[in-house]
Amino acid sequence: MPIGFKIHPRTRTVDAATVERFKAIAVANISDSMSRMVHGGPRLRPLHAGGVLCGVALTVRTRPGDNLMIHAALNRAKPGDVLVVDAGGDLTNALMGELMLAHAQAIGVAGVILNGAVRDSGWIRTNALPVYAAGITHRGPYKDGPGEMNVPIALDGMVIAPGDLVVGDDDGVVCVPFDQVEEVYAAANAKQQGEAKTMAAIKAGTVDRSWVERALEKAGCEGR
């Protein structure tokens, strides 16, 4: 059996109710609730018309420039899956474009995260399918393999396992591990509710910023 060329089974997935709850939570609040230690990298930017990405990770690892295993993943994707592809960050060849993305949208894929390049950026910009990628190029891919599906991958140090929760908005993408979703949701939701109260106080002109002065005093700042 060739090493590095295999389709593995996905043995666990975050449930649909959890996915739905996280759609209302900002990526920044999720990130803050995970000690700001989880980040998909600044190159993975949203290219689509707008909207939140939230779903279950269907992971792909492929060699730079080749998209055979991405096609294999599309043949096996389920509604609500997010296709998360580690292509090494190489931008020489676009690994997905209008046809593949339109097919992904048609079968109910919740979005695409690609550590590599895409093409047909005009189509992406005018469609609601969430697409995050590291770059854009017109040069197309090869379809020879190798690659793997449903294996742990890492994007700029953020580890994503098959079945994990992935969330994206205008600030980027974040992964919540399968066995931490409840804990992270509770913390992120509490933070989001707290920020809503702060925003209301800002609008009312009653926000309390005395904490800044206390922090300066504690840190020993002179001239305050």
TrEMBL record:
SUPFAM superfamilies per UniProt: RraA-like
Annotated binding of substrate, by residue: G97, E98, L99, M100, R119
Protein name as it appears in the record: Putative 4-hydroxy-4-methyl-2-oxoglutarate aldolase
Cited InterPro entries: RraA/RraA-like (IPR005493), RraA/RraA-like_sf (IPR036704)
Binding, Mg(2+): D120
Gene Ontology MF annotations: metal ion binding
Residues annotated as signal peptide: none
PANTHER family according to UniProt: 4-HYDROXY-4-METHYL-2-OXOGLUTARATE ALDOLASE 3-RELATED
Protein's organism: Methylobacterium frigidaeris
Coiled coil: none
Entry superkingdom: Bacteria
Gene3D superfamilies: Ribonuclease E inhibitor RraA/RraA-like
Keywords: Magnesium, Metal-binding
Stored NCBIfam families: PRK06201.1 (NF004850)
Cofactor(s) required, per the database record: a divalent metal cation; Mg(2+)
